[in-house]
């Protein structure tokens, strides 16, 4: 990794932080947690795009269990009609029924599992509508073009209670020139 960029390195469990070059749509100032990256492509969820939608309207019974802010998040532009539940767990022996550990303390859960079976085993829950997906080689191309910074994730990134500030916070905690990107104006013409 050099200056926050990666070429062919796998990014599972890491964050993609959009560069100022991605200036419109869901990926503008987005932070994406990569859930899986291999030769077939990559999938992740955008962590900082709350929709303000009531979770119970989409998935009855789950709303009261969501980590604050208690809303549905837009996980990406792919399959917006599907929902993906991510939780944090203490360890392998703490993965809830209907869950599968992805990496670190992050597990995916089957939202058809009753919430009362899942929630005693987890530290927090976030539900995403859709996900971000890349075909084989597509993400590597975007990384080479400088569309994304790749940085390490922290446990608190998934369940941040201030998603609107996550882009800046992730960049500011970097120990190199990437920290200065956090101060780049949202609209460069205002500079």
UniProtKB/TrEMBL annotation:
Highest taxon above the source species: Bacteria
A Pfam family: DUF179
Cellular component terms (Gene Ontology): cytosol
SUPFAM superfamilies in the record: VC0467-like
Signal peptide: none
Family matches, as InterPro entries: AlgH-like
Family the entry assigns: Belongs to the UPF0301 (AlgH) family.
Name assigned to this protein: UPF0301 protein BCF74_1023
């Amino acid at each position: 990794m050099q200056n926050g960029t990666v070429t062919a390195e796998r990014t599972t469990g890491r964050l993609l932080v959009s560069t100022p070059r991605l200036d419109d749509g869901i990926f503008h100032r987005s932070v994406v947690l990569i859930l899986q990256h291999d030769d077939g492509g990559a999938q992740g969820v955008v962590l900082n795009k709350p929709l303000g939608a009531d979770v119970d309207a989409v998935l009855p019974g789950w709303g009261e269990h969501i980590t604050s802010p208690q809303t549905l998040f837009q996980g990406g532009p792919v399959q917006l009609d599907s929902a993906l539940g991510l939780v944090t767990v203490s360890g392998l022996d703490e993965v809830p029924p209907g869950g599968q550990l992805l990496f670190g303390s992050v597990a995916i859960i089957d939202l058809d599992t009753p919430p009362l079976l899942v929630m005693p085993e987890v530290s927090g829950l976030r539900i995403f509508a859709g996900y971000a997906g890349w075909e084989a080689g597509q993400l590597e191309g975007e990384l080479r073009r400088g569309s994304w910074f790749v940085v390490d994730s922290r446990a608190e990134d998934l369940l941040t209670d201030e998603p609107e500030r996550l882009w800046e916070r992730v960049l500011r905690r970097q120990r190199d020139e990437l920290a200065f990107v956090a101060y780049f104006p949202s609209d460069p013409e205002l500079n």
